[in-house]
Design a protein that fits this description.
The complex is a heterodimer of chains A (115) and B (113). With 115 residues, chain A is mainly beta. Chain A contains no helices and eleven strands. In chain A, strand 4 and strand 5 form a beta hairpin. Chain B is built from no helices and twelve strands. The chains are: A mainly beta (115), B mainly beta (113).
Amino acid sequence: SQTIHQWPATLVQPVGSPLSLECTVEGTSNPNLYWYRQAAGRGLQLLFYSVGIGQISSEVPQNLSASRPQDRQFILSSKKLLLSDSGFYLCAWSDRVPGDNSPLHFGNGTRLTVT
Amino acid sequence: GNSVTQMEGPVTLSEEAFLTINCTYTATGYPSLFWYVQYPGEGLQLLLKATKADDKGSNKGFEATYRKETTSFHLEKGSVQVSDSAVYFCALSDTGTASKLTFGTGTRLQVTL
């Protein structure tokens, strides 16, 4: 069966420090991968998605970047965190199928607090 | 662009009460519709989905029918339990390269004894 691992579960970082959140998927090949952010009191916002190694699409301009160095690994990074980067970050994957309305499968999330 | 509008919460119900969480959408084309549930401290889990008009998605006693004429996908359950307390998200997905979901803002459900 497929599983998705996301770590760390919680993180407290000072303003201006770097960030690296990692997500890996097991039990599937060539998945689509996604990073979402859920800010306090708000819905989910798609930050990045990837349809293959090295292929990253950004949905919103921001202080963050994403990379996909391996087929089932997706990394969210920042060189210098801002207070506004605080939130709950969710990694997700979906099967890559024609028409592609396959559902997303989410990790348990990382709660990031920038102080 | 695509958008999803959910009723604002929180919704507080007694155990065994009937639940309705309203969801309406705006989209081009023929989206698929989803309900996701988020339990405290966890990520989102797919609850149910419908891929075309008049489809009914169902799971764990929850149901939602894809109504194209009213652009709605309301979530219902006949008898809620305390364990149903969570945040519920309505979402849509357009056909495309990736399943990029547009989410509603979520509705918090609190079920009490």
